[in-house]
Amino acid sequence: MREPGSDSEVAGCDFLIDNCGGPEADSPDSNVKYIPLILLTVFSIARAAVVEEIVVHTGVKFRVVKLDPARVSLVWKNPEGEPFRTFDQVQAAFTKQGKTVTFITNAGIFEPGGIPSGLHVEKSQTLRPINLADAPGNFFLKPNGVCTFSPGASPAVFIGTCPKWQQAQNRRDTWAIQSGPLLLIEGKRHPAFVENSPNKLLRNGVGVDDNKQLVFAITDKGEMVNFWDFSGLFLKLGCKDALFLDGDISKMAVNPDKPTKSNRFGAMFVVAE
Question: Which of 62, 86, 160, 176 could be bridged to 164 by S-S, CB 3.0 to 4.6 A?
Answer without folding.
Answer: 160
